[in-house]
Amino acid sequence: MTDVRSKLRLLALGAALSVLACSDSASPPAPAPAPPPAPAPPPQAPAPPAAAPTGSAGSAAAAPDAARGKLEFENYCVSCHGPRGEGDGPVGLALNPRPARLGDRAYMSSKTDDYVFQVIKNGGASVGRSPLMAPWGGSLSDAQIRDVIAYIRSLAH
Length: 157
Known about the structure:
Number of helices: 6
Helix content: 40-55%
Low-confidence stretches: 10-26, 50-59
Number of strands: 0
Radius of gyration: 38 Å
């Protein structure tokens, strides 16, 4: 009788091991096969040639826009130069020397766009003017500076 019990115990143990060996928790799932590589995209037709720039010679960007320049002027320049470019902004009134009077036609007609560009981009000291005129080249792109110059030119009356 003990021999039968021993055999039954061994049989039960074997069955339990078989169940464990076949269950999902006993073995990790096989990794999913890697997806096939995506097909290469078809070659695209070359882009049409760009239209010739409408700005001045050598300009690769759009023509300067005084309306866009006004927005930048209001954000960056009004505090010193004032809303009409008279050098009477709230900060400008406390500066010595006072900011340039950008609305003064005689003064502005003596300055080239390249000169004004240099002053705005690199600051007053870059052209021998007041170092209190901050360089805005880190905040404004070249195109934005050209827009500001277009607006400044519209102030000179």
